[in-house]
User: Which sequence fits this backbone?
């Protein structure tokens, strides 16, 4: 099992609407709006690293209003 965090930057005013969409994606276990360099942090549990990357690149980045993602794989 791979545990990861995906940081998401959104277009202005899009965070609240995207929170529900991101939280509803398969493999996303939790998502929060945060203050700082990113607007949303999503937590993911996946069978393989490939599944994490697929969620970030093929699913999250395709949502309208997502401008950037950064993925962190938990090491322990």
Assistant:
């Amino acid at each position: 099992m791979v545990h990861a965090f995906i940081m998401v930057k959104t277009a202005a005013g899009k965070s609240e609407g995207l929170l529900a969409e991101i939280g509803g994606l398969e493999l996303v276990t939790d998502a929060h709006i945060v203050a700082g360099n990113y607007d949303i942090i999503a937590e993911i549990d996946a069978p393989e690293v490939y599944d994490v990357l697929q969620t970030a690149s093929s699913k999250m980045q395709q949502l309208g209003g997502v401008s950037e993602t950064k993925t962190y794989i938990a090491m322990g």
